[in-house]
């Protein structure tokens, strides 16, 4: 076996080993959510319910709704990465309580969310992360906000009061 064959064999071995590592980290079950979560256990049904609930907060009008912008994925990731374990548990419990809303009309989902107490962790996290995701979405950044370079516009004719 010459040097070139050994290099090719090693290269193929590393490619196979890398593929095995990637494949073992993937979950190919039909109930797994679209994104990988490390701390929160959500399944595909939870993700679909969450997509409906964020759509109830920011429904589609002349601009895309929360579901179309995939804000439910943003909420899931922020819940997993940036929420305390206590609030994660309260959110999961609130999501389980809201499971009866799956497939219900938008107005009924909105009424349920508005009827929740003001300090409810589920509603606070859901609404806050949905709005945060919407404000930081590519659609809003490109189509709704006017970007000006820092330090901003120069107006040489501006009168200053002394």
Automatic annotation (TrEMBL):
Database matches in Pfam families: Gluconate_2-dh3
InterPro entries, per database record: Gluconate_2DH_su3
Record protein name field: Gluconate 2-dehydrogenase subunit 3
Organism: Sphingobacterium cellulitidis
């Amino acid at each position: 076996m010459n040097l070139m064959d050994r290099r090719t064999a090693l290269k193929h071995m590393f490619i196979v080993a890398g593929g095995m590592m990637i494949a073992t980290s993937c979950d190919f079950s039909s109930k797994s959510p679209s994104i990988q979560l490390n701390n929160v256990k959500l399944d595909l049904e939870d993700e679909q319910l969450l997509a409906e609930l964020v759509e109830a907060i920011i429904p589609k009008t002349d601009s895309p709704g929360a579901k179309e912008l995939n804000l439910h994925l943003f909420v899931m990731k922020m819940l997993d990465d940036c929420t305390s374990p206590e609030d994660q548990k309260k959110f999961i419990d609130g999501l389980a309580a809201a499971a009866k809303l799956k497939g219900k009309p938008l107005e009924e989902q909105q009424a349920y969310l508005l009827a929740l107490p003001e300090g409810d962790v589920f509603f606070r996290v859901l609404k806050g992360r949905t709005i945060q995701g919407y404000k930081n979405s590519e659609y809003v950044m490109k189509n709704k906000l006017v970007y000006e370079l820092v330090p901003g516009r120069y107006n040489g004719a501006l009168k200053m009061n002394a």
